[in-house]
## 1
Amino acid sequence: MKLVISASGGGHTGYAVALAQHLQKFSEILFIVPKNDIWSKAKVEKYGRVAYSIKPRGPRDPLLKSFPKLIYEFYEGLKIIPRDFDVFISTGSNHSVPLAYAAKLKGLKIINIESSVRFTKPSLSVRVIKPIADITVLQWPEQKKIIPEGIVVGPLFELPKYKSEDRGYILVTGGTYGHKLLFDALAQTSIRNIVLQTGKINPEKYKKIHPEWTVFDFDPNFQKWIAGASVVVSHLGKTAVDAALTYGKPVVIVPNPEWTYTAGLKDAEILARKLNALIVHDISSENIENAIEKALSRKPPKYANGAKKLVELIIDLTSQ
């Protein structure tokens, strides 16, 4: 069984890893990651070969300006994707869309994964790929309301690499692109035991304001910071899911209002209920401190890892 998986950065790469961890015995995998995304490469390269294509659009970029890049990536996909592979798996993001259509043109079957943070409407990438998809994969039963033909496998989360323990710090992350509003509000607090991952936001400002904090932009072993945290404060993304379900950590979700093209506040509220997490609607230092304090007494529920069921679907699809 030969598979192409788009590892499109951030949580999308996390879905690719979660799936690959359950596929190693069954398949040969080619990952396609965005060019210059060294962190996605570092996460997936142990599970298969890696190729690169451009990522046409960021979370704040308007759609119309991305069309030339979408077309360019389609032609990249035609060059990269081998014709003798069986299945292309989209983990979401605009990065996956041209690749999915290139894969379809080359005769591969298509699996289309919806994000774990989408509840009120399908993501644009899933909507665009759905007409050519053999299977559209959902991670929560609630998502059947927005994609009735989808198949629910359960949440996709990575296997633990480290022992879960409480080392007494608060982990704060804004994902790949960072979360300036959250970070600036956090910097106004007197909390000392912070580990801050800034993503593409320069970490130096926060190092100067709080030299007692541990601050970095990226760490390929980011799971170790999740494993040791007392509480994880995250944007609306897959880190919240991994923190709760892989390591059993209390979670505070702080949606980023600057990201107008992604999942919204209602989605965050539903995910928070699924994870027994706190949510901060109005970003302020006081609200963040209060949410962290309340989260310390919460425990997330347990769910079966949907990657196992998804592997079964892939095997069935390739045997048809």
Note: The longest strand covers residues 28-34.
## 2
Amino acid sequence: MIERPHYLDMLKPWKDKDVIKVITGVRRCGKSTLMELWKRYLQEQEGIDARHIIHINLELLENEPLLEYHALHNEILSRCADDAMHYVLIDEIQNVPDFQKAVDSLYVRPNIDLYITGSNANLLGGTLATLLSGRYTEISMLPLSFAEYLTTPTNTGMSQQRRWSNYIHDGSFPAVNELDGNDNLIHDYLDGVLNTILIKDVSQRINANASLLRTLVVYLYDNIGNLTTPRNIANTLTSMGTKVSTPTVSAYLEALESAFVLYSADRYDVKGKRILKREKKYYAVDMGLRRILCSNNVRDTGRILENIVYLELLRRDKEVFVGQGPTGEIDFVTNGPQGRRYWQVCESVNNPETLERELSSFSSIRDNYPKTLITLDDVRPTSHDGIQQVYALDWLAAGK
């Protein structure tokens, strides 16, 4: 079991607080493992009796009878031994139709501290959001960060560069670490994960065309980091022989983001301090998934680095935008606990002209918020008139 201290630390302050803890993230990113880690923490560190921890994974066949909200609700109440606090952990609750009714009833009971996980952002949409307005906190979970990946047993004893190569090749899903670098097994596992997501979390929910859905994912993964719109995507796919309308692309994009296959970054007008809604950049949840879908682009290291930096910034700062300055684009603008920051990402700036180009992206920004250039050049942290240049692998290794 891979430790996930970042997410465990996010849960700890919410123990016994009068809110539902909702953990969301792509399938197989480690939500169930986090629940196991939380159980262990409650027992070993908090001294909670095992009788007062109720953990139900709704993906297990033996729990199929509980895929009805009355049955789930009654099962949990029957296992509440006394009036002491009971910690109720429910995995993949979106598998239960009308689960909101069970959740709402469990929440109001004074002896239940409720934790639920789900693989779709719509878990917090519609009825549940209305029922629980102000009564839940969401913890958004991603597959392994590079820092987490470095701590796994299969990656000890290797150079940092070798581990980086494995990370961008095999991907960040925790179970991939158990496949001993076997390309065939990794390919089959990741393809199975993707198919499950596309069928269960997208196609069945919005009645989507599975073939078109996969074509769209391939196109977007092939073009990570490009500004685009649903209209542009529809026109491009149509010109390539896959006829699709703009409304269909918009609906599919929303569903893919809800299933955490895709993440998007809006443009942010640095001078006007407003979000520009028209164009977005899209990023992949995992580089292993991208590799099996877009084998022709496995060596576009610059885009891969940009994607991984984007995901790391999401872990650290939650809000990540593409910056639009008066004279050009800034790769990322973040608004996090430490305030606003600006980021440029480039594979290498060993060429003086490339360095000048990357630094010039910051030149039109007149405020004093920190500015950082992240590259794969293995150099010590360097300052260029206040702009910090850092080595990507060290920066990522120090992350969440």
Note: The chain has a mean pLDDT of 93.
## 3
Amino acid sequence: MKKRVATKSRKTTETNITVKLTVDGEGKSKIDTPIGLLNHMLELFAFHGLFDLELKAKGDTAKVDMHHTNEDIGLVLGEAFKDALTDKLGIKRSGSASFPMEDVVANVVLDLSGRAFFKEIERPVGSVIDRDEFGYNLEYANHFFESFANKLGMNLNIKISGANTDLHTNLEPVFKAFGKALDQATQIDARRKGIPSTKGLID
């Protein structure tokens, strides 16, 4: 099987991001962004998805808030996976995974259908999830996943159950489950001889 790898970069007046990705990896990562919590979450994503991932992001902190850097990281990662998977020949296409942490359970279901869709992370009615000490919050995580899904052409649904208010405790099982689900979807099915769509094409 041809090695599924990609190198992508995005340089604007706001951010400078480079990604090196190996889909069929060992879970090794080297993440360097200005967003500490996201660094840790991406390490967990790569480890549990068995993706080898190098990501370096810089932002002009005098002009750029966390929003642009967070969003652009999602965009470049989505582009990298899209390039590495090329025509998606033989992949399983869909994946799902659950992961717990303390009283929180994250459920992730995704489909590499070519149709981008992301529904904001669902949480128990009335629950409040705090932001971290640097201001990262659930809304930023939603923007990251939306950007990732849009560029990859992925239908992505994430739900959180549990009443824990700690942001880290809520996001850690999400990124672990996301890694596992995307690993499952990108695996090659030996029985599948073509593209996993009755249309014969996934955009």
Note: The longest strand covers residues 15-22.
## 4
Amino acid sequence: MQPEPANRPALPRGVFVGRLRRRHALPFPGRILVDVGDSVVPGQIWCRGRLRSGVAVVDLPRLLQVQPADVPDLLAVEPGVTVEAETLLAGTPGRLRTSRHWLAPTRGTLTEVNARTGVAVFVREIRDAALYCRLGGVVVSADPDGIVVDGDGVALAGALGGGGRAYGPLRFVESGERPDSRADGAEPSILVTPDPLRAEWVRRALETRTVGIVAPSADAEMATGLGLAPTIAGLSPPDGSYGRPPQTIVLTAGVGAARMPHAVQDIFRAAEGEVGAVIGARRPGQSEILLPPTAAEGLAQVAADHLPVQLASGPGAGAEGVALGDAPDVGRMSSGIATQFMRVRLAEGGIATWPTPNLTTLA
């Protein structure tokens, strides 16, 4: 009889160290400031443009019941002029109740009127916007839709996030340290904590000049209150909820009470003061933290001899250590499936044998 094959999948990676490639998309019309072959650094502006909000598109010929060619003669303001709410933008002659008018819905600008169709665009706000490089390296591709940057760095996958993108120097807040303890005179930074998020810690962090927060986890109520997870149907949001993320926030382990693995803490300590990028996205798998190559020095000592790993599921989940190699015998998980096990030297001391499918690498 043939022996039952062992279930031995490859170890998933929680941290990637080495050559990275990231596409930087252009979500609005803008001018790209770099070209193929240019060197860029994290936080460098690669595009400038104008972001429009509160856009209203109005078919003036239909509203005023005129021909498109007659629309220019009925305009009350010139395109490009900023007006207050309720200002007359266009209208037909006659008394107010018998004529047809278009009034400004808010304070804003009549940006354009199409000469052929008579369709007009009103914009509540127009502001200058800039896009920043998430990764340092070389621009290997550039087109009207964005650029691609290739370079060395460290990428840490985020399990849960929100609040968009943040760039700035990293500051590691040790366990038990207040996030506002070094806020005086400090430039805006990304705060990193090895502990699960707590309401008081977040409140103090938001009172400092922080641009982003990285933490290992938060309980379900905290994640919902920060806008990182949707409110359960039929339940009201927790007291003190922000509704939406007040800052860019990324949880590396997700909902729960997990602490940050020591190997990952060493990565952030090695990158203290360096500029990093935090991408917080509600869509699963899209949140991540990008760090410069110097962050890899935090893993050098451990990874030189053995691979740092963490038990991702099962009894003792969250424990970490270094892999010593496969266990000599194939065992079985609680489900009965034949599975390869791995010997691990635990961070707190001792040797354990863990199922390989339950492990995630930290380097």
Note: The longest strand covers residues 45-59.
